[in-house]
Amino acid sequence: MTVLGIKFDLKITLVIILGTLLPLIDLHRHTLFSNVAYNRFFLYLVVPVVVILLVFKEPLRNYGFQWGNWKEGLAWTLGSCLVMALVLAVIVRRPEFQSYYGVKSVNGLWRAIWDNGVDLFGWEFLWRGFTLFALARVVGPGAAIWLQAVPFTFAHLGKPEIETMSCIFGGAGFGLVAWRSKSFIYPFLIHFFIASWTTYLAMGG
Question: Could you tell me if 92 and 98 are in contact, meaning their C-beta atoms sit under 8 angstroms apart?
Fold first, then answer.
């Protein structure tokens, strides 16, 4: 599509618009469900999936919705979880983590873990599936890995400072794993472990 002499890629334009508006809809609490995790699952997974299938008319595997290179993906997952288990065992002892994640887990550990899984499955698809693989077509995987980490980082505002400041690197790391494995599943598994282990430690585990 060309507007005023400027050529726009319709797919990438829509990906950028959705990657901006969907987190803002979440931020302003325009909800369908009383559970925040279910709302995020709908916004971050269902909406992009519908766009891919009905608007882009592409298979979901083009956006990392597949097992992909599962051997490499599992290797990254296991190695990352081991490293982060040790790092978080130290960091989560800080008061800001105790207060933030202790409050988040008031409904109990298992409910918190379930919510983490529902929430992060959609969250990871939005950034490490939909956004990453779309951007890579236009700017290449290197730039796409860093670009998708930018809105991901800003979406962490309000969380403990160390966590927020590290997200540009963590988000890029997730993007690297997704690109190498051709799947958002493995970043999801890593992120799910990090969130659940953090919750467990904050609850005094």
Answer: yes
Residue with tokens 């969250």: 123
CB 37 within 8 A of CB 119: yes
Write out pLDDT tens, residues 66-111. Answer: 999 999 999 999 999 999 999 999 999 899 988 888 765 556 888 8
Task: Return the closest-CA partner of residue 39 out of 56, 19, 60, 22.
Answer: 22
- Measured CA to CA, the distance from residue 140 to residue 66 in angstroms comes to 20
pLDDT tens by residue, 47-69: 999 999 999 999 999 999 999 99
Q: Tell me how far apart the terminal alpha carbons of the chain are, to the nearest angstrom.
A: 55
Handedness of CA 119, 123, 129, 134 (dihedral sign): positive
- Distance, in Å, from the CA atom of 94 to the CA atom of 101, rounded to the nearest integer, reads 11
